[in-house]
Amino acid sequence: PVLLVGDTGCGKTTVIQLLGVILKQQLTVVNCHASTETSDLLGGFRPVRGRQKIAEEIVDLVASFVHNWSDPVHPLQDSAPEFIVEPMSKQDLPADAPKKCYDFMRDLKQKYCRGDGHGGSESISSKRRKLEDGNASPVTTDSECPRLIEQVRRGYKQIETLYQNFSALFEWADGPLVQSMKEGHLILLDEMSLAEDAVLERLNSVLEPSRTLVLAERGGEGPECVHDSLEGGPSQVYSSQVTSHDKWRIFATMNPGGDFGKRELSPALRSRFTEIWVPSITHRSDIDLVLERSLGSTVATNRSTPCDNSIKALRKLMLDYFEWFNVDVCDDPNSFC
Hints:
Number of strands: 11
Helix content: 40-55%
Strand order of the largest sheet: 2-5-10-1-11
Structural class: alpha/beta
Largest sheet: 5 strands, parallel
Number of helices: 12
């Protein structure tokens, strides 16, 4: 973690923005102020949005599960909800469609995954049937039982997760800090010293070598709870503990303490940063370069502007005024040289 300290307008934020462009990583900027709360960084609970979309996703997943079922000895069409066997438009789905889908998958799991989930093969083997046309070979062999059990277990876990999201009134929404930690983005806490100490102290664990964060506000399950994707996609870990991505980096900026309205960071928090002093722009050549870039972009976008010689003369007049104001009026010869 890096803390940039310097006066206003010396380019602290711009340096971090350029670093994000060079590293080709997304940069998240959080502007801190006196009213910044913990939820602005970590996140909080909000009313569940898109409930209808979740219901449609549940129905689509169950329909895909039934369609891809590979055990003709135990077909699912007889026990599946009617809107799964005979697809209908999304608008015509019954209001209790998500609950019926969840109950269907729960009953299926109880049938195939008895006990601790590893005794389902015996249940299926004891009910093995043969084809009614007299074929002596069973339709489903014992070697296929573990695959069917795993298919049911994974399907039930995903439907269970979606149904919990559908039934909940509120859901957790990650804040910019937690989201950047998970996705490996850069995050900048601009004017960090303006936030309250109670808010900033939550960053202590993030700044340690372990780079972990415990979301006590969220609660929920432990770090070992993993929900696998039904189609073999990436797993989703639901945990109150967040460990940062390897590419995640955190930066902060602040103005020097002692000025009006400025505050100092606590020693415990400040010692966790690598502090870098950013000097102010005082050289006439540096300011002239900034004016050249700023006024040059105006010339490129507006053809009615004066020629280059007039722009150069305008820059000289502006620099002369800056020098007169800082040296003669403000009596600060070191502010402009």
